[in-house]
Amino acid sequence: MMRSIAMILGTILAILFLIQLFRGQKYEELVEGLEEKDFPLKDIYTVGFCWAELPPLRLRGVLFERLEQNAKVLYGEMYAEYYANVYYAMALSFFHFILCFGCLLAGWQDSRNFFYLGIFLAIVGLIYGCDSMRQKLVKRTENCETELPEVVSTMAILVNSGMILRDAWNMVGGRGEGDIYALMRDASEDIRNGHADSEAIAKFGRATNSPEIIKFTSALMQSMGKGAGELPLFLARQSSDLWNEKKQRLLQKGEQASAKLLMPIMLIFLGIIIIILSSAFAGISL
Question: Which residues form the Type II secretion system protein GspF domain (predicted)?
């Protein structure tokens, strides 16, 4: 019975998948430029775009607002709606593909467990698609916060040696590798396109999505307003403070890692005690 139900359901899902894949050729241009390392199995996202055409499955409401907000920070306001729809299409595509595969596998193996596992993994794929952009944003924010002390200390050295802030910013951003340096290059590009320095720096702070960096950029703009004489002292103070904060964060992460390791050790210890006690009681009963 299980084999028949799973095979029928899997076959229907497979046919629907192929139909949507054929219909989704009109969306191929939307996924063509996506990088495979950031968007796995991007060629099947056209299936998700087709499902999103249906009124009950259209991207809207709270989910749309959350995806669009994350996309604005991660990719810029101009591309926010596009990336929100891409991630939603990815989620729908993964759900359909995994559920189809799980049903066919359950039917082939005549296994109820594979059927339930397929449903579970399909839901995981759906959640992954909807949440992966937020995870990328969190990771980028953490990377930016980790790289900030080195950026500020290098800028402090350059400004103290007589270089103006804009040139120091361009030099540091142009030579570094990492998320914060890429965002600095974006700010430099904005300045070359006619944006004011303060506006570009403020946008840079918002793009990091880090309260710490936003606070730093706000203080930097205030220091810029006070004159060139204040800037070297400000950067030197900030460099010292940020390195101290980074040391504290590393210590906290070390403590958290130790705490996470403690639980498995306690479970292993408890298991050993149970085995010893079981052996002891077995010996007594004999």
Answer: 153-277
